[in-house]
Amino acid sequence: MILDQFKLDGKVAIVTGAGRGIGQAYAVGLAEAGADVAIVDVIDMDETIAAIEKLGRRAIGIKADLSKGEKEAPKIVAKVVKAFKKVDILVNNAGIIRREPFAEHSAKNWNDVIAINLSTPFFLSQAVVRQMQKQGRGGKIINIASMLSFQGGILVPGYAASKGGIKSLTMLMANELSKDGICVNAIAPGYIATANTAPIRADKKRNKAILDRIPAGRWGTPDDLKGICVFLAAPASDYMTGYTYACDGGWLAR
Ligand code: NAP
User: Is residue 159 among the annotated active site residues?
Assistant: First the structure.
């Protein structure tokens, strides 16, 4: 039955940056579909863990600084395997944004954004793929892209470059990993109300310009993204790989 193909019972997922915001919604959505979830963040993760446990699923929190992905990735995967014995799903969600004009964009801002948004998904995916290959039962990797995987944006050079890179990396991973039964896709959220976008929502002029351009006429919420995440993690999407899916209230259609 088709609805059974959306179930994640018995699966183990890792979601980064899931202490709050969109990552928290992904983690809870995957648990609602049946998965046990390891969440990774620098901030307190109690709220997300409690929400997952309330659903009768298991959750662990792994505190790690994802600006140091090369060093942290193998340790994160080892902790998940120790707790849950395997990894079936990875959601590379943690991300940051630094707003500064191109000519003034500092080396620190550029390096911080590229490290967390692009390099760490690479290193963590690599560590997870090695584990999935050992398990021999395939898996699902979901990268988090952006409208700026398709557009240039303004004032966010590091962010635009990192999210363009994520879209390309998603295609390369799909090409190389399909033979192992590993599907790799990306979600490109539109304008979602989180701490990340608080500064532009507080700017009345910017907020109005954004709302006027969104066909749905409202900001998205983290919960709006749960469905696409569960779909891309579930058997229902087994023949889909290498693509970046917008969930944007119609923004890219304008
Ligand atoms: P958010 O509210 O800022 O949450 C991101 C989470 O990642 C936070 O808990 C954050 O912790 C954590 N994080 C940041 N740096 C970290 C590090 N070095 N190590 C470990 N964890 C770290 O962001 P969001 O809006 O939910 O965005 C989540 C993802 O969606 C990002 O990849 C973002 O680019 C993408 N996205 C968001 C939107 C949007 O409109 N909100 C649109 C398109 C794409 P701290 O609190 O310490 O920062």
Answer: yes
